[in-house]
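REVIEWER CHECKLIST
Item 1: Sequence provided? yes
Item 2: Single chain? yes
Item 3: Sequence as submitted:
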Amino acid sequence: MHENTLILIEVGALLLGMSILGRIAARFGFSPIPLYLILGLVFGEGGLIPLDASADFFSVGSEIGVILLLALLGLEYTATELLTNLRQSKWAGALDFLLNAVPGAVFALILGWGVVGAVALAGITWVSSSGVIAKLIRDLGRVSNRETPTILAILVIEDLAMAFYLPVLSAVVVGVSLLQGAITVAIAVGVVSLILFIALRFGGFVSRFFSPDHPEPLLLGVLGLTMLVAGLAAQVNVSAAVGAFLVGIALSGRVAEQASELLTPLRDLFAAVFFVFFGLSTDASQLFSMLVPAIVLAVVTIGTKILTGYLSAKRAGIGVPGRWRAGFALTPRGEFSIVIAGLAVTAAGIPLLAPLATAYVLITVIVGSILARVPDAPWFKAVLRSRAAAVRAKQAAAN
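Item 4: Structure as written out by the authors:
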């Protein structure tokens, strides 16, 4: 069979399978990401039916998927909103880092993966999934809830922090000297700061390059600019995904709204390809060997994320039910965790990190999707009412 023909057959079969899995996930009200990862594991290295012909297609498609995921996330915010969120939520961001990055770093050191593994696993356990959490908030009708701005502020801080974390990780995994690493990080920080400055001061000017009234040129222009900046950012050791995120921030007004609408179907397609490709590139035979460590890590860091959301919402003056909603909603990890694992596995040669990250993301997305619904359960509301009554009775007795 001709190779191109085989590629078409493999890609077509996988896309059809992804469509079916997406419908199943929608039917039961949870994220399709775990199903996409499992599909990739089934047809990847060490899976039941390895597919080789379409590997290059899914590799390129996964790169585009990451770029579009972050570009669309950037389109949801302006540079001013980002800076405001940073100023208002510094305490929450610091707490989030300490409670969730440190356990990952310690866990990697226990496994004997050294400094590189510690830096990578710290990022994997630190960053929640903006995509999964945003979908949960929309699906559960909590967009206007009082705790939602706190959740979004933490997500924005994490996403922006990735602009500085990923260059550091890149320098560490490549194994450059201290001076070279410092120069690499300095260049990366300078590039990120420059793009943020342009977005803050000249965002309107950049947006005027595009017309929201002409869909086709707008789609091609924004997509072209995003991929161009992503590529240039990668060239100076800034993540391509972060470059795309900052392009999204630079665009505003009707241009951002129309671009978001036009790019959303492409994002959905290539983001799904990204998750499938990570499964395809992970040795499924090693997944079970890392299942117990993944469960232990998930239990610890799901608990720390719940504590992060609860304490951050409490500091923001939100009531007890909202604190629990914030904590439970933040537990899923996803796209950034996979990106970090992919970078570390490719550049640093820690093969067991990929199956650990895959199992970990699967567990946190599935458990997180369930936990996010717990605050709406009658039994949970009854427990909170009982505890509140007990506290009032105790205070009354003390007085």
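Item 5: Key structural point noted by reviewer: The CA atoms of residues 55 and 360 lie 24 Å apart.
Item 6: Recommendation: ____
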